[in-house]
Write a structure and sequence with these properties.
Its cofactor is Zn(2+). This protein is of the alpha+beta class. The protein has 3 domains: about 5-85, no CATH class; about 95-125 and about 445-495 and about 570-774, 3-Layer(aba) Sandwich (Collagenase (Catalytic Domain)); about 185-395, Orthogonal Bundle (Neutral endopeptidase, domain 2). The model is unreliable at about 1-15, about 30-65 and about 755-774 (pLDDT under 50).
């Protein structure tokens, strides 16, 4: 192994390297499996080892093993006796210790660069896989989940317990049927274009009626030219659903790609080439297609110019505007809104007094003006282009090849080597994810995991509430309301219960046939009907936005709920036989992160019932805003490849990262006070408190291309993984104390947010930027 060797002191008499303990123990595990001994046997003394008769049926079992194996067993048992009970040497502990040591770069100084210290080995051993623009522990777990789902869906004896599960298998197999997809070629999409009225790009254009085309492409086929329409809980009345309209219409990930042309010239050229190639694959002539696609790109650039940047949309109280359809008509007259919304939400009966919530009032006014002054043929071309974009994923290899070239410029990925089955699992999860999730949950998830997760959430919630008492800047009335909100947070773990009820699950999905393209269209149609069905219903608190196999978690402000799908409740985030320090540093921090979202710069605007209203006293609001400025400045000072993080865009997630770490660590210390210290891991050579922080950091080990890193900086509300670790730990007095980082080192600057801390630093002599939690 590279780097300095770790030495474990044994009774101050002899030194045994941690690596050697791992090697011996792995050898012994192999021997134990061969001899079929139980783990308890390995803890017997050396004396008892020689007293036990290693014979079965008169056959000398040890005689079948090599002398090296016997020597390993004796050496290991001697080491176990010498080390006493200080180390956890269960198979799970040894395995995770080995993985953690392998991921580390022990030549790095943890007080200079903890991310390199925690992840340097992982980064060195994990070059980007072919066809990937990024790779992380999240991707690794998702691939494991995908492999399991592949096994379930391709099992020759598959017999789903519900019709929905059988439809899921049929849908997946239609995606795998590349022979049929290749035979059909572009014809399914060309037929759809003709059905809608044609596309000037590829043939006769029959429909000049702007409204008719808009209703078709954005209604049953769910494209979103100009703006998006949805149905969800009203932020100011969370017990009722309401129509919601927002800005939309850009194909590239961010307005920045269109407007910063010098920096993104390569991407813009590749995007235009992609547009032209698709147009030609659908029957267009090169010169005409080139001209018209350039016009579409120019129109998208005009849309980008009026699109409001995400960092200017963080105050949800300010961007919320509730109007009637009649008032919306006056604001944006280019669209017949009653006709459009009635079509999108058919068969509901709407009238001019129907309420609509707008999140981009000025944008809608400006996009209406843009529509009115744009030629109708260009509007039609643009609307049909949004439909084409949405449909090409279900077409033949030529379309995939065209997309690969664009992705290489956009994300730095080379030609995709992703197996078709992985693509199809991902697509099936996107479309029939809850039926797929039912299969996943029944194969992997147990109630014990759910019970432990619920217990951890309650421990972290308690730590969070205790921390509120130490906020000197928060007034008592706001503090009491904040505690009430924390108590009211509704946690959903693993999966929504309805997916295990075959009848309820069957009601969710439509029929499936052997045409992948048609199955995609059926799903879009079904989604449109579900949206319409929701409007007159009370919001369902148990309705999830993520499917059970997803490796992620989220907070729902209008439900004041946190969701942890089954997909994330596994190592390295959680394992029942891992040390508590790792579980609290992994899934515990995730839980604390989502809980803290209820009190970040956006979540704090919602009360305990999920309603958007000003429930903080003005003095606390002002104090909070002043203190968040330090975090904006801190993260804006970090760079990736010379490009700065947007501290405003990432503020909410940075608050959640900092608060989540604090809550999880304090919950862990409370657990230790109740249960006593755990045994430490071998070879890692860290205390359990240090292990907590290492476990947290190694969750974020990742690699990505420069292009992907740039895309993340302009679109992602999260900071890059490196600074989710460094930024959070640099703000943690607990981290600095346990790793003995002197003031003035990069991981304990002693200067960040001086005199502007969100909290008084406890037991530390320097000021740090800590959000909401002590």
């Amino acid at each position: 192994m590279t780097g300095p060797r770790l030495v474990l002191k044994v009774d101050n008499q002899e030194n045994i390297t941690g690596e050697w303990i791992l090697i011996m123990h792995y050898g012994m595990l192999a021997l134990r499996r061969g001899l079929k001994m139980d783990a308890g046997f390995l803890c017997d003394s050396i004396q008892s080892l020689f007293q036990v008769g290693f014979r079965k049926g008169g056959v000398d079992i040890l005689g079948r093993r090599t002398q090296l194996e016997v020597l390993l067993s004796v050496l290991l048992l001697a080491a176990l006796l010498a080390l006493g009970r200080g180390l956890c040497l269960s198979e799970a502990c040894v395995t995770v210790a080995s993985q953690m040591v392998e991921a580390m770069d022990r030549s790095a100084d943890p007080c200079q660069d903890f991310y390199q210290f925690a992840c340097g080995g992982w980064i060195r051993k994990n070059p980007l896989p072919d066809g990937r623009s990024r790779w992380s522990t999240f991707n690794s777990i998702w691939e494991q989940n995908q492999a399991l789902l592949k096994h379930l869906l391709e099992n020759g004896t598959f017999n789903g317990s519900s019709e929905a599960e059988r439809k899921t298998q049929s849908y997946y197999l239609s995606c795998l049927n590349t022979q049929k997809i290749e035979e059909l070629g572009a014809q399914p999409l060309m037929d759809l274009i003709t059905k809608i009225g044609g596309w000037n790009m590829t043939g006769p254009w029959e429909k000049e009626n702007f409204m008719e085309v808009l209703k078709v492409v954005s209604g049953p086929y769910r494209a979103q030219p100009f703006f998006s329409v949805g149905v969800s809980a009203d932020p100011k009345n969370s017990n009722s659903n309401v129509i919601q309209v927002d800005q939309s219409g850009l194909f590239l990930p961010s307005r920045d790609y269109y407007l910063n042309k010098t920096a993104n010239e390569k991407v813009l050229v590749a995007y235009l080439d992609y547009m032209v190639e698709l147009g030609m694959l659908l029957g267009g002539e090169r010169s005409s297609t080139q001209l018209q696609m350039q016009q579409i790109l120019d129109f998208e650039t005009a849309l980008a110019n009026i699109t409001v940047p995400q960092d200017q949309r963080r105050d949800e109280e300010k961007i919320y505007h509730k109007v009637t359809i009649a008032e919306l008509q006056l604001l944006a007259p280019a669209v017949d809104w009653l006709d459009y919304l009635s079509s999108s939400l058919s068969p509901l009966d709407l009238n001019d007094t129907e309420p609509v919530v707008l999140y981009a009032r000025e944008y809608l006014q400006q996009v209406s003006d843009l529509i009115n002054k744009t030629d109708r043929s260009l509007l039609n071309n643009y609307m049909m282009w949004t439909l084409v974009q949405k449909s090409v994923a279900s077409l033949d290899q030529r379309f995939e090849n065209a997309q690969d070239k664009l992705l290489e410029s956009l994300y730095g990925t080379k030609k995709s080597c992703t197996p078709r089955w992985q693509t199809c699992i991902g697509n099936t999860d996107d479309t029939l994810g809850f039926a797929l999730g039912a299969l996943f949950v029944k194969a992997t998830f147990d109630k014990h995991s759910k019970e432990i997760a619920e217990e951890m959430i309650n421990e972290i919630r308690s730590a969070f509430k205790e921390a509120l008492d130490r906020l000197s800047w928060m007034d008592d009335q706001t503090r009491r309301a904040a505690k009430d909100k924390a108590d009211a947070i509704y946690d959903m773990i693993g999966f929504p219960e309805f997916i295990l009820d075959p009848k309820e699950l069957d009601d969710v999905y439509d029929g499936v046939n052997d045409s992948f393209f048609q199955n995609m269209l059926n799903f879009y149609n079904f989604s449109a009907r579900v949206m319409a069905d929701q409007l007159r219903k009370t919001p369902n608190k148990d309705q999830w936005s993520m499917t059970p196999p997803t490796v992620n978690a989220y907070y729902m402000p209008t439900k004041n709920g946190i969701v942890f799908p089954a997909g994330i409740l596994q190592a390295p985030f959680y394992a029942h036989d891992h040390p508590k320090a790792l579980n609290f540093g992994g899934i515990g921090v995730v839980m604390g992160h989502e809980l803290t979202h209820a009190f970040d710069d956006q979540g704090r605007e919602y009360d305990k019932e999920g309603n958007l209203r000003p429930w903080w006293q003005n003095s606390s609001v002002e104090a909070f805003r002043k203190r968040t400025e330090c975090m904006v400045d801190q993260y804006s000072g970090y760079t990736i490849n010379g490009e700065h993080i947007n501290g405003k865009q990432t503020l909410g997630e940075n608050i959640a990262d900092n608060g989540g770490l604090k809550a999880a660590y304090h919950a862990y210390r409370t657990w230790v006070q109740r249960n006593g210290e755990e045994k430490t891991l071998p070879a890692v050579n860290l205390t359990n408190d240090q292990l907590f922080f290492l476990g947290f950091a190694q969750v974020w080990c990742s690699v990505r291309t420069p292009e992907s890193a740039h895309e993340g900086l302009v679109t992602d509300p999260h900071s890059p993984p490196r600074y989710r670790v460094i930024g959070t730990l640099a703000n943690s007095p607990d981290f600095s104390r346990h790793f003995h980082c002197p003031a003035g080192t990069p991981m304990n600057t002693g200067k960040r947010c001086e005199q502007k801390t969100l909290l008084p630093a406890k037991d530390v002599s320097v000021s740090v930027c800590v959000c909401l939690l002590v």
